[in-house]
Specification:
- The chain is α/β, with parallel strands linked by helices.
- The chain folds into three domains: about 10-70; about 85-140; about 160-195 and about 210-355, Ribonuclease H-like superfamily/Ribonuclease H (Nucleotidyltransferase, domain 5), CATH 3.30.420.
- Helices cover about 40% and strands about 10% of the residues.
- The protein contains twelve helices and seven strands.
- A five-stranded mixed β-sheet has the order 4-3-2-5-6, sandwiched between helices. The chain has a two-stranded antiparallel ribbon with strand order 1-7.
- Helix 11 crosses helix 12.
- The longest helix is centred in the last third of the chain and has 17 residues, at about 320-335.
- The protein starts with 7 loop residues before the first helix and ends with a strand.
- This is IS630 family transposase.
- GO terms for molecular function: nucleic acid binding.
- It comes from Streptomyces cyaneochromogenes.
């Protein structure tokens, strides 16, 4: 048997499909029809294409009846899943809980094999492989993650303090300037782990043994939300005297404006001398709630400083390390923009009376 007579235009179309189609099923069917149109028998096509004779006859019959539509595969959706979506969701729920919650003692977390055994023992499914289980969890966006810690704030005024700081971020007072202040450090002289582009299998090596004969230093920094720039100084200590020196520098920089200084509850920040000077020089100290350091906008800047300027380094002197920090701060300030929209989508903005927070 042969395919019906094919016009010249149909022949060109079949040839284009046989050369460029990315669908293997459509490509194979087009070749079968084209070979039949060229006068090759079913037996010849079967031998060349390594397919069954029934397949070749079915393709030819379908093309004779429906034309080029017969070349496109008609997917029926495949076999219905053995495990229903309801059961799959139940499996994901069990995976997100502790084995102890289901009476499985001696285990703090599920392995795939242990979870599969539990599902079979509880008659959730008659049988399930680890690969199927892994696929079900992946489809439900349940993945293997490291456990993190959190602290609940013990500050009875947590909500009021948080709202005060968010208000300063969202609507800075017209009569002043909002500045976030904190200490960064200690700055040790030691090799620091980091990441860098390297040939595969050849990571950068840093010394594993070192001495801390150079002592430590501390960085006192201030983030101006109006410009987004950072001011800092590096000192051997971080007492109230060093902190007060930083405040005096900020006061001299903006002599005509009231300063709203956001800072944590570090004891030097609350020293009597600091409080007295701040009250006398139009500086309002806005303290963060206890265990609420993540509300200080400068914390994210410290994370970037650590990642880009210090991680992966092995400075041997403080002068060398301080120069690296200074170079990064200069680059960062040259690209700084005003700081707006603090955590706009964060759940913290929906808190009302629950002082618990993830630190």
């Amino acid at each position: 048997m042969f395919v019906r007579a094919v016009s010249m235009e149909e022949g060109r179309r079949l040839q284009r499909i046989s050369r460029s189609s990315k669908d293997p099923i459509r490509l194979r069917r087009a070749i079968v029809v084209l070979m039949s149109a060229q006068g090759q028998t079913v037996k010849d096509i079967t031998s060349l294409m390594q397919v069954g004779e029934d397949y070749v006859r079915d393709v030819i019959h379908a093309f004779n009846e429906r034309g080029f539509d017969a070349l496109d595969p008609k997917w029926s959706g495949g076999r219905r899943p053995v495990i229903s979506e309801r059961v799959r969701e139940h499996i994901r729920l069990i995976a997100r809980t502790s084995p102890a919650d289901w009476g499985v003692t001696g285990f703090a977390t599920w392995s795939l094999s242990k979870l599969a055994e539990h599902l079979i023992d509880r008659h959730v499914v008659p049988r399930i492989s680890r690969e199927t289980l892994r696929r079900i969890l992946r489809e439900g966006k349940v993945c293997w993650q490291t456990t993190t810690t959190w602290k609940a704030s013990t500050d009875p005024d947590f909500i009021a303090k948080m709202h005060r700081i968010l208000a300063l971020y969202d609507a800075p007072p017209a009569d002043g300037r909002v500045i976030c202040v904190d200490e960064f450090g200690p700055l040790n002289l030691m090799p620091r782990k980091g990441k860098a582009w390297r040939p595969a299998g050849r990571p950068r090596r840093l010394r594993a043994t070192y001495n801390r004969y150079g002592g430590v230093m501390h960085m006192l920094a201030a983030l101006d939300l109006v410009t987004g720039k950072i001011s800092y100084r590096i000192r051997t200590r971080k007492r109230w005297r060093e902190f007060l020196g930083l405040l005096k520098t900020l006061r001299q920089r903006w002599p005509e404006q009231k300063l709203y200084v956001v800072l944590d509850n570090f004891s030097p920040h609350k020293h009597a001398e600091v409080r007295t000077w701040a009250a006398d020089h139009d500086v309002e100290l806005v303290f963060l709630p206890t265990y609420g350091s993540w509300l200080n906008w400068i914390e994210s800047e410290f994370a970037a400083l650590r990642y880009f300027a210090l991680n992966g380094t092995d400075h041997r002197t403080h002068a060398e390390q301080n120069a690296a920090i200074a170079a990064y701060i200069r680059w960062r300030n040259a690209h700084a923009e005003p700081k707006t929209r603090f955590a706009p989508e964060s759940p913290i903005r929906r808190w009302t009376d629950d002082p618990a927070n993830a630190a």
